[in-house]
Amino acid sequence: MTLQEKLKAKLARAKEIRNNAEATGRDFTEAEETELETLAADCAKLKKQIADAKAFDDMDAEVTAAETQLQGRKTSPAPIGGNAQAKDEKLEAMAGFKSEGEFFQAVRMASAGGDVDQRLLAAAGNVNTNDGGNEGFSLPPAMRSAIFSILEQDTGDLLSMVTSEVTGASAVSYLKDVTMPWQAAGIQVHWDQGADKYEPTKFNAMTAGELKLNGLSVFVNVDEDLLEDAPRLGQRMMVNAPAAMRWAINEAIRYGDGVGKPKGYMKSAALITVAKESGQAAKSLDAMNVAKMYTRMLPGSIQRSHWEITQELLPQLMLLKDDSGNPLWTPLNSGFKGQPNGLLLGRPVLFNEHPEAAGSVGDIQLIDPTGYYLALRTAAAKYAESMHVYFDQGLKSFRWRLRLDGNTILTKPVDPAKGTLTKSHFVTLAARA
């Protein structure tokens, strides 16, 4: 589903809620107001993503046009008595390759010591054909955009949600442990009283962290028959490799140990693990679990947070109620006629394959993805541009490489302004074995 289609779906749902209320002459219910707030935030985010994507595409087109002009690839001269031949924009976006399979075949030939197709140089601007720490061949613009879309076609995707920056460096500094308004951090507020004199204090609101970008490599094994079949080769490479990279990156954002890969929030000291209830049964989910988890989310993060829950807990989730018998989980689309993700205490629920098995730590998570910082090595706005591919003759496989690293912005939970419960961007439930 494209960003435009997602936005239309959100707007259609908001219109449905308004029409239902107007048709019966009633005010919005509390659940409807919460859902409309969520839809408004989602629509605003989608509009920004659409605007960013257009800006990136415009920049990409400008760069491609400039490269084309420098390489002298212009429209064909006009025949006598005729008009100039129009540019083939699709072919240009593919750096002159007719298909993805043809590009991969050229990579294989160059990496195996054969002639380097000049179109590879046009796509990359620079090229390294062996490992040795080098990156390989850069993808043509059209393939980068396709890979970018495939990487985000997942209900468990966090790449588009986390706080991310692009860089051309191998290591970056980022701000961590950003203080809350109630934490002084060198800032002092005084109520003026007559001629009192106040001494200035040093401002130290945040500290710097450093990330050293790690290489993520995916090998796609191929046989001779597939190497000679450009259509099948292109189709498999453009789907299988990005899908594998998508899974690995999203797993690392959640569970990475920080050794040669991003440090996941589930391995971070910033994670809050809420204890189970006394006498709670194995693999069970209690209404109080959910309430206590919600209590530990940073107040400013609640509107950006969502639940990630294993589908194994769905039967119990459907039965969760408060002491008055009100359901804590409210499915969208007036019941179960649509995909039953819904809202839990007013925040969206996402079912995907990343949460742990029922009863394990991580089977239910409440997270604000913006509390995670991800650095991606690229010289352009779309991180897919940092993705490179070459052919390993010895293994008979294509190797894809992407450089990135990440960590939570907080290094520990935040102390409250009042009360005793610490809070964080990331909250999970203890094991119920």
Give a brief rundown of this model.
The chain is an alpha+beta fold and about 425 residues long. It has ten helices and 15 strands. It is about 30% helix and about 15% strand.
Give me some keywords for this one.
seven-stranded mixed sheet; six-stranded mixed sheet; 15 strands; 32% helix
Write structural notes for this entry.
The protein is 32% helix and 17% strand. The protein is globular. A hairpin with a 2-residue loop joins strand 9 and strand 10. About 5% of the residues have low confidence. The protein has ten helices and 15 strands. With 433 residues, the chain is of the alpha+beta class. The strands form three sheets. It has a seven-stranded mixed β-sheet with strand order 6-15-11-7-10-9-8. Helix 1 runs antiparallel to helix 2 and helix 4 packs across helix 8.
Describe the strand arrangement of the main beta sheet, using strand numbers: 6-15-11-7-10-9-8
Q: What is Rg?
A: 26 Å
Helix content: 25-40%
Mean pLDDT: 78
Task: Describe how the helices and strands are arranged.
Layout: H1 3-23, H2 30-70, H3 89-93, H4 100-111, H5 118-124, E1 137-138, H6 141-151, E2 163-167, E3 171-176, E4 207-212, E5 214-221, H7 224-227, H8 230-255, E6 272-274, H9 287-295, E7 306-309, H10 314-317, E8 329-330, E9 343-344, E10 347-351, E11 364-367, E12 372-377, E13 388-392, E14 397-408, E15 426-429
Helix pairs in contact: 1-2, 4-8, 6-8
